[in-house]
Design brief:
The chain is an alpha/beta fold. 44% of the residues lie in helices and 15% in strands. It has one domain (2-235): 3-Layer(aba) Sandwich (Glycerol-3-phosphate (1)-acyltransferase). A seven-stranded mixed sheet has the order 1-7-6-2-5-3-4, sandwiched between helices.
Length: 239
């Protein structure tokens, strides 16, 4: 968490302005377009990353579908993951988050600006409602991000099992599935280091509906995990 304090200290003059503006946007989301809200998030995110001495190296941006209405499926390393992808991704997207983090200051405002959905993993009925709503919005042209592992890995760049149920929204929407490989994102907030850090964000080739329509959800999960795992193995830095 030392890096969060570094972000604040190095942006001390910007923080009051950025915080007030973020809170205002979060409280008046319908007053601004998706692009306007996303532009603000990217601006604040870029300033925070500079302050925290974090560099984002983005790869495969050309793999992001040209048409909106797709879902990102990254591996999950920690609270910083969404912020890494925001700086790397030129296209607005929203997220499905677990309800346990929806009220964390700053993240709460970011999620509000993204019009994100909180999911209760212990409430099957509520979870299904969220999945159905997200699939409808994807078909209408919104982009989302879902962490298929369900919870963050505590073992650096190693992957947990990807849950088949996480892909139900994509299957219902018949949309492109975009695997995203995050490398070293865990070092941002989950270590006490403030050394300069490079986080890699790899957007992989999407799985189109025609490719996965005959696959079971667990098979889709395994395929996405395999692609992400291979990308991490090729690109991670050995400490």
């Amino acid at each position: 968490m030392k890096r969060i304090f570094l972000m604040i200290i190095r942006n001390l003059l910007f923080v009051p302005y950025g915080w007030i503006k973020l809170c205002y946007y979060a409280s008046h989301v319908d007053k601004y377009t998706t692009d306007q809200r996303y532009a603000l998030l990217k601006y604040i995110d870029t300033r925070a990353n500079w302050g925290g001495r974090i560099r984002i190296d983005a790869y495969g941006i050309e793999n992001i579908p040209k048409r909106d209405g797709f879902i990102f499926y990254p591996n999950h390393q920690g609270l910083y993951d969404v912020l890494a992808i925001i700086e790397a991704c030129p296209r607005p997207f929203s997220v499905i988050m677990k309800k346990e983090i929806q009220d964390i200051p700053f993240l709460k405002q970011v999620f509000a600006c993204m019009k994100a959905y909180a999911i209760d993993r212990d409430d099957v009925k509520q979870s299904m409602k969220v999945i159905i709503q997200v699939s409808k919005e994807v078909m209408q042209g919104r982009n989302f991000l879902i962490f298929a592992e369900g919870t963050r890995s505590r073992n650096q760049n190693q992957l947990l099992d990807f849950k088949g149920g996480s892909f139900k929204a994509a299957i219902k929407a018949k949309c492109p599935i975009v695997p995203v490989a995050l490398i070293d994102s865990y070092q941002s907030f989950d270590t006490n280091s403030i050394k300069p850090l490079t986080v890699q964000v790899h957007f992989l080739e999407p799985l189109l509906y025609e490719e996965y329509q005959d696959m079971k959800s667990v098979e889709i999960a395994e395929e996405v995990k395999r692609r992400i795992g291979e990308t991490i193995a090729r690109n991670e830095t050995v400490l």
